[in-house]
Amino acid sequence: MTIEIILLALASTIRPTSLAAVYAILSGSDGPRRLMGIYVASGLVFTVAVGLIILTAFHGVPLHAGASHTKAVAQIAAGILAVAFGLGVMSGRVGGKRGDDTLGGGSRIQEALGRHLTPRTAAVAGPATHIPGLFYLLALNVIVASQPRIIAGLAALGVYNVVWFAIPLGVFALCIFDPARARDAVGALRAWTDAHGRAAVVVICLALGTLLIVSGAIEAH
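^ that's the sequence the OP posted. Answer follows.
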């Protein structure tokens, strides 16, 4: 089940709001290392806490976690929702039809941080730009259905969050040694996302959704 969790996390990795916040921190501060550390730490604490609350709430509930039928239903449901989301993005019904800010209001985030760039705003921006969305909820659904033991569920939750924060974590690591290069890398990634982000989301959603549906169908038999 780790493969499905990693793929769901990868689908959430590139967020315009997160990229905009990271770029603003790197561009508008004399001490980006500290602010990046606060941003990443606060975001991770928030998302992990949300996952812990949900996993703990469902731990012990008689969902027959680990049973083939339960896992199959969870995978198929997650797959259908992922495909529906991808089709919504492709049609413009999800995220609108604009190219630069299609999936998250990145420019608004950057403008807000540019005006008020402090440790407090960095701490707020971490959770604000990583509010759990569809893929996080789908991943938690799959974890709850497939992991009867809380320890295994927490491990899967940790894997998801590390992959989800791969870009901020990588930028933070690079920022420690070379903030200018980290800023240029994020700028290039934002440019690529503006040009190809919608197409990438559609491809990932359709491929991931199909994989989950097929895996669920095989699990059911």
